[in-house]
Amino acid sequence: KKLFIVAGARPNFMKIAPILRELRRGAYPFAAKLVHTGQHYDKAMSDVFFEELEIPRPDYHLEVGSGSHAEQTARIMTRFEAICLRDRPDLVLVVGDVNSTLACSIVAKKLHIGVAHVEAGLRSGDRAMPEEINRLVTDAISDWFFVTEQSGLEHLLAEGQPRDRIHFVGHVMIDNLFHQVEKLAALPPAALGTTPLKQRFPEYGVITLHRPSNVDDPQVFSGIMAALAEVSQGLPLIFPVHPRTRGNLDKFGIAIPDSVVLTEPLAYMDFLNLFKDARLVLTDSGGLQEETTALGVPCLTLRENTERPVTVDEGTNTVVGVDPARIVAEATAILAGRGKQGCRPQFWDGRASGRILEALAVAV
Ligand code: UD1
What we know:
Layout: E1 2-7, H1 10-23, E2 31-36, H2 47-52, E3 60-61, H3 69-87, E4 91-95, H4 99-110, E5 114-118, H5 130-141, E6 144-147, H6 150-158, E7 166-168, H7 172-185, H8 195-200, E8 205-208, H9 212-215, H10 218-234, E9 237-240, H11 243-252, E10 260-263, H12 268-275, E11 280-283, H13 287-295, E12 299-301, H14 310-313, E13 317-319, H15 324-335, H16 352-363
Parallel strand pairs: 1-2, 1-4, 2-3, 4-5, 5-6, 6-7, 8-9, 8-11, 9-10, 11-12, 12-13
Helix pairs in contact: 1-7, 1-16, 3-4, 4-5, 10-15
The structure holds uridine-diphosphate-N-acetylglucosamine (UD1).
């Protein structure tokens, strides 16, 4: 069977990498082609991940680039439709919740091509979040659902999806994380660009921020940065800056103290090398809430909600919102040793990709 695997943005790359790696074992009845939509295109946001995560060169590169949501989604749809018509896949596999996920699932369904959604069923309940719309629409039309946690299963059932199409398989991103942790252990520290930072700061925290709701509003963004500046008085914070965030830092003229160290966006291994040994991670990312839980690193999520509640119920994550006083109080509690312990969620064992491909081999 012909399988198209779609990736477009940075958080997709770590999810397709282990699926492609598992496919390379040759144990499944699929001829896979990789489609990169080009939603992310900078070297630091795309190419370096292909190299480090051993992702082969895409069979199709749609080169859609940035734009408004409608422009970007429309460009992906038009270009993806053309290759589906030409090459006629039997199945399209999409991962996560970015615009590429949404666009390609709609195109496939309208051409009567089956859609498998990996990381299905997550819900933040916040429809102001573009990813929530992408999740809802993709799940409404997908044929097979692969979920990472119990909440995903429950949401899909409540939305009327048939039980036999939903597979609780664990998390492909954690498959990749464990693979990379092993590779990292075999590398000399000098091979990693973030080693000098770790030498300079024996103890540190890590920040990532890129959600429009946090970085597009000058007041919210300044409030968060003021809180982080305060936290950094007790613990230096290293902050790899996403392009959207960089643009707004400059535009709003937000002051950054020396104890908050800005870097360019980091490659996967460099970032892993940093956050795995951090005292604390402060983030609005979805994936990082899960990667910190898998490695037992304390995480504060600077959002009002999470679509990944298992990281809070079982893992090391606390959802703290964006109130500066609360951010400081929660960070102080962790530094005083009052952080959560947490355990690794069910099926986050490095074998999710195999479970997905086995289920699809039977289903398709
Ligand atoms: C996208 C995803 C988000 C994901 C995030 C991770 C959607 C709706 N959003 O958000 O879920 O968490 O990726 O990074 O799909 N830009 C560059 N170089 C690039 C890519 C983007 O400079 O390679 C700049 C452009 O100015 C662009 C802006 O960043 O306008 C935002 O990029 P975009 O892909 O629209 O959304 P993200 O905020 O990255």
